[in-house]
């Protein structure tokens, strides 16, 4: 644990980050910006896992291992999303959300 | 000392996150995201999870951010400004997010956390043994599943980004019928011309 910092302060920080990510996810109109907001949300949840592991069960490894898995899934998700965005840009010459309202050709 | 460092990191992370979702230039918002991720790595260092901090720096800050920057550079001009949502919609969303945040904070501050005072350092060897152990509490199955997932994501990303054959837009049926009639008329006209030449 961090000396002098309680668990509620860190959970407050991660909640603030999570809702900033949600705000960006809803208000942004661009596929890449939405991807950035998703990364914010994922990162705040990873910090939550780690903090709860460290403060409540310091001798266990579950939170840490699951945060490693979340980071791996986030990397896979970003690679796929970037591939899809580049393909969408090649077909539509735009990455705005309203241009991609149909998933047909 | 740690308290001061934690607060500095927290302020940097929150300010960068707000800048990241509200900046109108896309490349800048990616760089602000990088600051948030590095701040999270700093939190892991403070909590004595060195291995996780190293993973955070290499995978998130080194891999994901560079990937997003590449896609931004491929897709649009650096100086192009993004369009933003209508102000009414933005305020409504901000209000909803504040509501959700207050619910979260009320739950967090009312829950009695049984914080232990013991502090133990996790070594990399322990993590490796836990990841690859078959016994109770081992993580060999999720570890293998995640490796298959990464392979599938890699192949899928290559297949999607390479793109298939370009699909020609289909002509509407009316156009095709019209062309057929035109062709027949042309053949008839040619036959007539041939007949005329023959009679002459």
Automatic annotation (TrEMBL), chain A:
Name the HAMAP family on file: NDH1_NuoK
Q: How does it assemble?
A: NDH-1 is composed of 14 different subunits. Subunits NuoA, H, J, K, L, M, N constitute the membrane sector of the complex.
Q: Which keywords describe this protein according to UniProt? A: Cell membrane, Membrane, NAD, Oxidoreductase, Quinone, Translocase, Transmembrane, Transmembrane helix, Transport
Query: Which terms does the record give in the GO molecular function aspect?
Result: NADH dehydrogenase (quinone) (non-electrogenic) activity; quinone binding
Reaction(s) catalysed (UniProt annotation): a quinone + NADH + 5 H(+)(in) = a quinol + NAD(+) + 4 H(+)(out)
Q: State the membrane topology.
A: Multi-pass membrane protein
- Protein's name in the database: NADH-quinone oxidoreductase subunit K
* Organism lineage string: Bacteria, Pseudomonadati, Bacteroidota, Flavobacteriia, Flavobacteriales
Mostly located where?
membrane
Q: Where in the cell is it found?
A: Cell membrane; Membrane
From TrEMBL, chain B:
List the residue ranges forming a coiled coil, or say none.
none
Q: Which PANTHER family match?
A: NADH-UBIQUINONE OXIDOREDUCTASE CHAIN 6
**Location in the cell:** Cell membrane
Q: Which family does it belong to?
A: Belongs to the complex I subunit 6 family.
Q: What membrane topology was assigned to this protein in its record?
A: Multi-pass membrane protein
**MF terms in GO:** NADH dehydrogenase (ubiquinone) activity; quinone binding
Spell out the protein name for this chain: NADH-quinone oxidoreductase subunit J
Q: Which reaction does it catalyse?
A: a quinone + NADH + 5 H(+)(in) = a quinol + NAD(+) + 4 H(+)(out)
Check the record and name the Gene3D superfamilies matching this protein. NADH-ubiquinone/plastoquinone oxidoreductase chain 6, subunit NuoJ
Its EC top class is translocase
For this UniProt record, the keywords arranged alphabetically read as follows: Cell membrane, Membrane, NAD, Quinone, Transmembrane, Transmembrane helix
Instruction: Quote any Pfam family the record assigns.
Output: Oxidored_q3
The EC number(s) this enzyme carries:
7.1.1.-
Any one of the GO CC terms: plasma membrane
Lineage, top-rank taxon, reads Bacteria
What this chain does, per the entry, is described as: NDH-1 shuttles electrons from NADH, via FMN and iron-sulfur (Fe-S) centers, to quinones in the respiratory chain. Couples the redox reaction to proton translocation (for every two electrons transferred, four hydrogen ions are translocated across the cytoplasmic membrane), and thus conserves the redox energy in a proton gradient.
**Where do transmembrane segments lie in this chain?**
6-23, 30-47, 53-75, 91-109, 139-161
């Amino acid at each position: 644990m961090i000396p002098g910092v309680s668990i509620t302060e860190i959970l407050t920080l991660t909640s603030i980050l999570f809702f900033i990510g949600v705000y960006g996810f809803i208000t942004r109109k661009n596929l890449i910006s939405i991807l950035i907001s998703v990364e914010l949300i994922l990162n705040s949840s990873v910090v939550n896992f780690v903090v709860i592991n460290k403060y409540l069960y310091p001798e266990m490894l579950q939170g840490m291992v699951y945060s490693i898995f979340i980071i791996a899934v986030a990397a896979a998700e970003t690679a796929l999303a970037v591939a899809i965005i580049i393909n969408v840009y090649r077909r539509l010459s735009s990455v705005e959300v309203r241009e991609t309202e149909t998933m047909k050709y | 000392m740690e308290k001061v460092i934690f607060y500095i990191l927290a302020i940097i992370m929150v300010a960068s996150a707000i800048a990241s979702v509200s900046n109108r230039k896309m490349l800048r918002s990616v760089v602000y995201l990088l600051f948030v991720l590095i701040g999270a790595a700093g939190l892991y260092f403070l909590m004595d999870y060195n291995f996780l901090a190293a993973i955070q720096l290499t995978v998130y800050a080194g891999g994901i951010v560079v990937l997003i920057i590449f896609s931004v550079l491929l897709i649009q001009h650096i100086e192009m400004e993004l369009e933003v949502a209508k102000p009414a919609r933005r305020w409504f969303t901000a209000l909803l997010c504040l509501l959700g945040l207050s619910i979260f904070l009320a739950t967090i501050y009312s829950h009695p956390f049984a914080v232990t005072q013991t502090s133990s350092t996790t070594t990399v060897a322990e993590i490796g043994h836990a990841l690859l152990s078959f016994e109770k509490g081992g993580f060999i199955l999720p570890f293998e599943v995640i490796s298959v997932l990464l392979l599938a994501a890699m192949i899928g990303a290559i297949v999607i980004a390479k793109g298939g054959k370009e699909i020609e837009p289909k002509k509407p049926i009316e156009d095709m019928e019209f062309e057929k009639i035109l062709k027949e008329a042309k053949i008839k006209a040619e036959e007539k011309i041939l007949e005329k030449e023959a009679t002459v």
